[in-house]
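Hey, quick one: can you model this chain's 3D structure?
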Amino acid sequence: MPLQNRVTPTGDIIATPHRGMFTGNRGIIHDPATKTLTRRWASRAWLTCLCDFRGWRREVMDGRSWTELFFLDEATAFAAGHRPCFFCRRHDANRFRAAWEKGNGFANVRAGDIDAVLHAERLSGGKKRLHALARPLQELPNGVMLQEGNESYLIVAGQALRWSPGGYRQAESALQSAMLLTPPSTVRALSAGYRPVLHESAIGC
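Sure thing. Here's the predicted structure for all 205 residues.
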């Protein structure tokens, strides 16, 4: 039976056999004895990490260093409120920080500064915070994710693709009242030039 360690665009953590392109963490949020979750986060640093780094191997949910979570792709991780890790993804993290500074009008920000802004943007009363769209869907940068009803959608070239744990497919109809899932500061970083890694199904739609 798959463990409950796959993150959805809404930030929920579900059990599914699909593992995705990235791992990451929110601190220690599981019980090693039962390999079950005890909370949704334990740190404001919600990271997106490489699944393969220096050949290191970890037993999932085994120790007490951090809880391994998994994401379909980087757009999913961004929507949930994560950012690139400065340890295993230093180049990407520095690119993201530069775009985040440019898009949000800051300079010389630290990782903790970004985490503080993201924490306020991703949560409301302990639940996922949704934001109103500030511009038409067609003007959103690639990698932004939206929520309408119970479904999450990725925007690529102005088109909406419906998310699922195994990949994306074309939306069945036009979105009418979608809300923004991706934190606004991250949207501005995407607009400023950061290119997120997307699942191959997003390219083929």
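One thing worth noting: The first helix runs from residue 74 to 80.
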